[in-house]
Write a structure and sequence with these properties.
By secondary structure, this protein is mostly helical. The protein has three helices and no strands. It has helices at about 5-30, 40-45, 50-95.
Amino acid sequence: MAPDSRKARLEGEVSRLRGLRADLERDWRRLPWYMSPAVGGLPAFFVWGPFVSSTIVAGSVTLTMSAAYLIGVRRKEYDSDIREVLREIAILDAAAEG
């Protein structure tokens, strides 16, 4: 594979990873909405009792914390992948110069 085509492919990969990282930022901003079912805990307390109410609240908290963890892990992975691809581009540039 020619160095120019490999560099172009790597640059395309960087832009793809940055796009995925931007999608994760959008998901991170939406994260507070994951707690919205917890609002149903109060009416559920009066209709079905404390067990159902606490289950709704605990489920909302669990969903939110799980999503936050997964989004955080993916963000770190994408950042690491971007750094690695940029390092490969720098190696290609150094090899082309000298």
